[in-house]
Design goal:
Blueprint (H helix, E strand, L loop, with lengths): L2 H18 L4 H16 L5 H10 L6 H13 L3 H13 L5 H17 L2 H18 L4 H11 L2 H4 L4 H9 L5 H30 L9 H26 L5 H19 L5 H34 L2 H12 L3 H18 L2 H18 L4 H15 L7 H10 L3 H24 L2 H9 L5
Helix pairs in contact: 1-2, 2-14, 3-14, 4-10, 4-13, 4-14, 5-6, 5-12, 6-7, 6-8, 6-11, 7-8, 7-19, 8-19, 8-20, 10-17, 11-18, 11-20, 11-21, 12-13, 14-17, 15-17, 16-17, 16-18, 17-18, 18-20
Amino acid sequence: MSGENLSTLILLGSFLLMVFLRFPIAYSVGISTVLCLISMGQNLTVLPLQMHHGVWSFSLMAVPFFITMGVLMGSGGISDKLIALANSLVGWMRGGLAMVNIVASYFFGGISGSASADTASLGSILIPMMVDQGYDVDFSTAVTITSSCEGLLVPPSHNMVIYATTAGGISVGALFMAGYLPGALLAISLMVGSYIISVKRNYPKGERFSLVKFLKQLGTSFWALAAILIVVVGVVGGVFTATESAAIAVVYSLIVSVFIYRGMDWKGVWKGLESCIDTLAIVLILIAMSGAFGYCLTNLHVPAKAAALITGVSNSPIIIALLLNLILLVLGMIMDMAPIILIATPILLPVATSIGISPIQFGIMVVLNCGIGLLTPPVGAVLFIGSAVAKRPMEKVVRATLPFYLCMLITLLLLTFIPQISLWLPSLFGYAV
């Protein structure tokens, strides 16, 4: 075995071993990188230099701002307003509260950008509400956790920013625009699945649709939805960068939460900021460690070897695209979202582009695959949160989620093989796709 192949085996083998042994992911990445550098005969001063390089990016400054914005808006009384807006829009349908759950997640996801925050915030309100109206508790939990993944696609998503940086300077604005239609497609797919189950189980309808009531709720919820407009319109219109828009959105979120909706006091603000620091510490140490890990991957030519290995399985772009999805789905079952984006993107993106998949389209595929992974054992963070909120055994929630897994996989296949779902809006606004 050559020295390069041995170092590759040490890097990837030790990393996967520690993941399966449930090491903290940052430790897994860091220790495997150190072992690889030693096997390559490199000075360990490379490690802090590459860690610094990994986080030295202006675009990445948007990540802490977007996380802070989500925490402030999510804790500031926004949830009730968005649930009421969704209820006035789709509550009249059969299984109306399930539809409200899905649509509210679309709205809330555009504010929080976090599936976990969506599940914890909306789930604590909607799951008991659905149970009181006669919905099965496991069905209610399944709807909540699967619809929360819409927020990963709907901008502003900090995971999109991480992907854009990792993929090598892809436009954040293009990725933001690319997420709207896939997020809506996922919502429609989940609504169809919910409607079929609701008809079979005779779940109740809500009140008849009223345009006056909808417009009134839209006016009440405008201040929450305006945060999305500030970010997206500002970035797409070229008024400011993603980082600048995120900083402005934080100030706006603070004003709305404290002074307009009055869902937070200053004590709550400080508590929210403490929560942000905990999350940011995890995210940024992962990004730093992944910078060093990526350095080893590049020096060992792992992306080129992986591309040759995958394309050697078949010459068919369809088979290769399915294989890419399968790899990402399996990774999602054993790893959290940010590490997958940071580690898998440099390896798999060249394969995707070699079969004609746009980097922007591939970003949407990666995010949705990771979102599905958040719902699957053994490391499904959103699955655990949903089970905890509903106080239900995880295996029963998984069983109730099976029809919705199918809806999400159908959406994933449509996004994989119909590029225009992801690329139409960015191209309409003049981005190169």
